[in-house]
Structure formats: structure tokens, C-alpha cells
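Section 5: illustrative case.
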């Protein structure tokens, strides 16, 4: 029989780790949300594409503006739906203004 000095007891501590595939907005009490960087970049690219069609501004300036605009909306939005709604409404209003200005100048 082994002596008591050679016997080791093992204790297992179970640590609960939050699921990585669960979005923070789905967790109660959390007002923030996360979007993958590639999703946010795709949205910035769409904003750039829309603005380039209507404004003769260098790409770097449009990209800078679009990135700042997206960041501002992202930090102010309370959920993914709020973020997408704000982006959509702003882009719609920009395109509407451009159409109205074009019609007035024609």
C-alpha cells in the first residue's frame, strides 16, 4: 500500500466560460453588441460605393468619412437591428437629397 505522502488527490474546478457563438446582445442586461470586422468593413465599402457614385471626391477622403460615419453609428447603436436601421436611414436620406438636388438643378 502506498504511503500517504505518495498519494495525491485531484480536485477538479469547473469554470463556466460563456459561449463564444452567443451574441452579447442576446445576453440579458448587456446594452452592447458585436459585429464581425468583415461585416463592418463590408458596410463601410457599401457606403464608399454609394458616395463615390455621387461625389467627385478622392477615394481616401470618402473612405475616411465612411469609416468615421460607420464608427459613430456603431458606438451609438444599442443593438444590431438599431445599427442597421440607423445606417439604412442615413444612406436613404443621403440618396434622397442627392436625387432632389439633381432634379432641382436639371
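Designed sequence:
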Amino acid at each position: 500500500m502506498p504511503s500517504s505522502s505518495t498519494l495525491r488527490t485531484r480536485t477538479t474546478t469547473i469554470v463556466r466560460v460563456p459561449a463564444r457563438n452567443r451574441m452579447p446582445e442576446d445576453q440579458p442586461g448587456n446594452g452592447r453588441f458585436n459585429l464581425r470586422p468583415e461585416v463592418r468593413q463590408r458596410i463601410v465599402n457599401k457606403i464608399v460605393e454609394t458616395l463615390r457614385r455621387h461625389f467627385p471626391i478622392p477615394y481616401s477622403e470618402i473612405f475616411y468619412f465612411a469609416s468615421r460615419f460607420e464608427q459613430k453609428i456603431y458606438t451609438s447603436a444599442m443593438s444590431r437591428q438599431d445599427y442597421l436601421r440607423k445606417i439604412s436611414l442615413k444612406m436613404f436620406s443621403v440618396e434622397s437629397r442627392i436625387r432632389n438636388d439633381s432634379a432641382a438643378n436639371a
